[in-house]
Amino acid sequence: MTSPPPRPSGGRVPPALITNGVIAAIFFAIPLALIIMLDLDPEGWFIVAVLAALGVLIVEHEIVAPPRRGRRMLLKAQESYARAEAGAGAASAAAARIPTGDAHGAQVLKRLRWYEGRRRETGEVLAGLGRMRWIDWHDPALSEAAAKLSDDVSGLSAINDAVRNAAALLTRAPGWEDAWENECGPLREDLDIFRELCQEVGDEAPAAPPIADSELGWARACGARLTALRAQLASGALPPGAALDELDAMAAEIRARADALARRALAAEAPPGEEAGLAHYREYIGTWKLPDDDDRYAYSGTWQDDDETGASPAAGENGERAAVSYNPAATIRLHDYSPGIRVAGIRWRGLATASQYSSPIERILDAYLQSRSTGKE
Question: Where's the DUF5129 domain (predicted)?
């Protein structure tokens, strides 16, 4: 739940401001005392200058900066809230077009209803923060409330985008092509990481290159399948819900293949009788529990065009691979940081299990690299 609206300090000075003020005063008082009481040599003046500089840094970082950071965060939240409010009507109209019988649409609607129930409360908290004075921003509790509010408001705006994408894609309304490409973003980003994992494995494990080459071939086929699905959607040969189901299965297969490749590579790289690297990997991957994982990974919102021929519209000049951007927060399918994920009713059921869920396989790559280093020690 959103925190209660914060209250002004009522003239009370936050303890943190008193503490930082005393520390800063000490760093100014000592140099002043040295100047008055001693005939300073060059080394003494250097010490005075250093202490004074430290005092200035403390004043800037601990006294001046907190209100500035808080106000900046508040302004960003106010802008996001204004966008969310402006888009609320369009989102409601779009929500009415989402087929209630589609599982993907149902979880988007569930997330939207949750945010709609919080919108008024979030607005009250936002208004309360707007009444805070300069001195109030030195209260750590207020900074925490502002950070939490920023996340809530960001989710309000993002869920509107997800609803519009769901309405467009699930009914093949105008704009469905963009919604589909955005939906493919997390999988294409995972495919980028999968190729990087294949490269790492091929470079490191003498016995692994044939396996890595085979997996690279599968990754190319997977990318081509995403393009083919769009064509099937356009022709009407494949219902949108079924296309999203295929993304569910593909996301699970990417994770499963990445996990299997990392395990095979670590086993191949280890000296006879040694399993330290593989044991480390198993332990790390075993902690992958979502969405309440403290070690969640976020999608960056960018993937590299994988059409090496340069024929793709996303390819850059001279056929080089070009960066393609998408909005992870606006996807219909879930990922670790989807707005309202905890109320969606969809649960992470395992690394290789298909569900309306993508989780960055960058975690597998990092686990492999760390485990490989552990195995060498």
Answer: 48-247
Bridge-based pairing state of the strands 334-335 and 357-358: parallel
Integer CA distances (angstroms), 78 to 28, 122, 124, 325, in order: 38, 11, 12, 25
Q: In whole angstroms, what is the distance from residue 243 CA to residue 103 CA?
A: 12
Checking if the pLDDT of 137 tops 90, the result is no
Total residue length of the chain: 377
Alpha helix (H) residue ranges in the chain: 15-37, 42-58, 65-95, 103-130, 140-170, 176-204, 209-235, 240-269, 276-285, 362-376
DSSP 3-state of 188: helix
Q: Cα–Cα distances in Å, from 249 out to 115, 160, 244?
A: 28, 26, 9
209 preceded by a cis bond (ω within 30 of 0): no
Q: How confident is the model at residue 351 (pLDDT cuts 50, 70, 90)?
A: confident
Read off the tokens for 72.
Answer: 């900046």
> What is the residue whose two structure tokens read 């993907």?
104
SS3 assignment, position 303? strand
What residues does 334 pair with on adjacent strands?
Answer: 357
Residue with tokens 């790559």: 365
Beta-carbon contacts of residue 283 (< 8 Å; ≥ 6 apart): none
Highest-confidence segment of 53-62, 136-145, 146-155, 354-363 = 354-363
The structural domains of the chain, with segments of one domain joined by +, span 15-170, 176-376
d(CA 107, CA 221): 30
Give me the helices (H) in 96-175, please. Answer: 103-130, 140-170
Please give the Cα distance from 311 to 315 (Å, whole number). 7
